[in-house]
Amino acid sequence: MRPASAGPADPPPFVLTESAQAGLIVAAANRTALDLGIAPGLRFTDARARAPQLLSGEIDREADARGLRNLAAWMVRWTPLAALDGLDGLMLETTGCDHLHGGEAAMVAALSQRLTRAGYAHRMGLAGTPGAASALARAAAKEGLPALLPEGAERDGLAELPVAALRLSNEAVTLLRRFGLPRIGQLYGIDRKALARRFQSRDMADAACLRLDQALGLRIEPLRPLQPPPAHSVRLPCPEPIASSEAVVEGLRQITETLCADLARLGQGARSFAFHAFKSDGEVSSLTVTTARPVRTPAHIQRLFRETLDSIDPGFGIDLLLLEARRTGPMNVSAVALSGDLAASDTDDAALAALADRIVAKLGPGSVRVNTPQESHAPDRAEHWHPYDGALPPPSHTHATTGPRPVRMLSHPERVDVIAEVPDGPPLRFVWRRVVRTVSRADGPERINPEWWRSLPPVGGTGKMPRARDYYRVEDSKGGRYWLFRDGLYDDDRGAAPEWYVQGLFA
Amino acid sequence: MDLATLKANGIVRTQTARPPVRAVFPFGLSQTGVHELAEARFGDMPALTGFALAARNEGQNRGRAGAILWVTQAGLGMEHGLVPDGALRTFSPHHTPRLVVRPGKLADALWTIEEAIASSAVSLVVAEISGADFTATRRLALASGRHGVPVVLLMPYGREGATAAEARWRIAPRPSAPNRYDSRAPGAPRWHVVLERSRTAPHLAGRSFDLEWNDETLSLTVVPGLAAGQVTPPAPPRRGPSDASGIRRAS
């Protein structure tokens, strides 16, 4: 699909170029250029020789891919299963969706009309198999004239189409044409073995047979959708496009309640909700919220959406609202304890998860974190922070008996200049953050050896091996209490003289 | 006119009475309302953290069980380090589940605190924020009073000016207690705590306490006569309900 070039009836020839190994080649051409025989793949110098007045621009493949993905996301309006097909095609699985739009023909016509209005030149085919639909779109359909084929009629419907429509490589198409097999129908009668023998390589023969079988529905061709299909979705078409944010809020309320009722009937909740607002000018705004545990409370879901609902700009009006529930799972609902004394735990997990959901909706995913203690002597490994997922970590049973641990830990140990007795005396004076601190009392060392099983020794030397740390608890003359360590021992042969760091601060 | 009629007409309405806060140390810190803890000098944040955690064990309903929410504004966390879960274990006899949020902006931090109070899902909110104007503290104080979730704000040394908080404490570290087993090693931490303002006990505003944390009994004790240049608070005759400083004296 490419945006239709708006302008006079006979626009000047225009091509998009890209650089290839042989130099600049034509990547895409408009109709005038195509009529002049300038097709994609031609060298740009040859193209300009044919049409000296040729206009050109550089192709932006990334922007094209982005545009195609956006268009695929917009297709959620018609079906939840949309997949990319090559660089310029989309594949939609519409099974079970056509009745929402009044039948297949009506749906295709409406889609075509909307695409035209949004300025997309397109060709559409609809058939029982992806291969047949693709062949129809490439060979049978015309601009604004979709080609439809009823289910089961692939064999007859495709017979007259050229073999190039089968998504074959250029070499394979050329070969088939040389054999005098330009139409798909001519392939039906040929014995498969005889057909395969004509190709140069086995891969090419297999590809040709596969594409033919896929088009005829003899082999299944699964789609790889951009988004996994949602477990449940509710749509709310608006007969009159809505343009006010209050109406969006009201629409969200209605579909949330419907969706939650659906989920409740199945005893399920969802951990992710996607809200799409389709505008009449062909754009779509989508919002997603995630929750820590499965939920199906309409008020809570609406509250989560409310944080970002302002980002939906109704523009010229919204004509369809769609709410999808993703990552559904069973919900274990238990009655709320009548009094706090009867509750199983001191924490109301559901309320806590709801709070975390709201914070995540406002501050972004992963902003609420919990810590699971790890069995490790290394202080920077003893804690494992991860996003809160609805479950509080159980009380830790640390087996490690350690010395006193600081009340605040710096995120990274900070290097300090230290005057200390060599080899293993406590610091006497150190400079941290450009302030000289005189140590009045010190305690230590507490030696923490590196976890040797985490680091393999480097080949041919011990230069990068982690070193043992000697931790000291010191107090300066002003009452500040610090946790310092010396990274390495003087005689461990693991690098230069050890350096000192501040790791934490005591209360 | 009986009570039911009055209620129906909206003249009177029932409200759950707040439990009276006795004017006893720590004057409701981490039990009711919003309390501000401020640094005396730059870099006193560890002392602040220690005092906030230690004071949870004091008072009438010490150490309310339940999860706590810890909000750390990102800049302050970089400056003073983060509070590991191990610190909570050393200061509290109970397991305290904790959720941690690190918003970048002050407005987001205040929003998070208020949201947590309103949800009533947590038993305490501890927040390290760079500042809060009167309106912000008033909002937090009202929400805290309505939902009964206490808030402790840990603030940097420049904290001055009007506040709607229940109290403002200013904390500085003091040289630690002598170590009984090793005279060269630091001992139990000591802090100099000034109650700068208090709504519960306005007559005690300006009073200072020299406190020592005992990590074996998990309690705070007043240090007699050691604090440099400070008059020790007079010893109360007997501990009673009106006892101003109902804390144990160090032996």
Give a structural overview.
The complex is a heterodimer of chains A (507) and B (251). With 507 residues, chain A is α+β, with helices and mostly antiparallel strands. Chain A has five domains: 2-59, MutS, DNA mismatch repair protein, domain I (3-Layer(aba) Sandwich), CATH 3.40.1170.60; 80-216, no CATH class; 233-330, Dna Ligase, domain 1, CATH 3.30.1490.100; 368-402, no CATH class; 408-506, no CATH class. Helices cover 27% and strands 30% of the residues of chain A. Chain A is built from 13 helices and 21 strands. Chain A has helices at 31-35, 44-50, 61-74, 104-117, 130-140, 154-158, 170-178, 185-188, 192-198, 202-216, 245-266, 298-306, 349-363, and strands at residues 2-3, 14-20, 23-29, 55-58, 81-85, 89-93, 120-121, 125-126, 147-148, 232-242, 268-279, 284-295, 318-330, 368-373, 383-387, 408-420, 427-432, 435-448, 469-476, 481-487, 499-506. In chain A, helix 5 links the parallel strand 8 (125-126) and strand 9. Chain A starts with a strand and ends with a strand. Chain B is α/β, with parallel strands linked by helices and 251 residues long. Chain B has a domain at 31-176: P-loop containing nucleotide triphosphate hydrolases (Rossmann fold), CATH 3.40.50.300. Chain B has six helices and nine strands. Chain B has helices spanning 3-8, 45-55, 74-80, 85-91, 106-119, 134-147; strands at 34-39, 68-72, 98-101, 124-128, 151-155, 167-174, 190-198, 207-214, 219-222. A nine-stranded mixed β-sheet of chain B has the order 3-2-4-5-1-6-7-8-9, sandwiched between helices. In chain B, helix 5 (106-119) packs parallel to helix 6 (134-147). The model of chain B is unreliable at 227-246 (pLDDT under 50). The chains are: A alpha+beta (507), B alpha/beta (251).
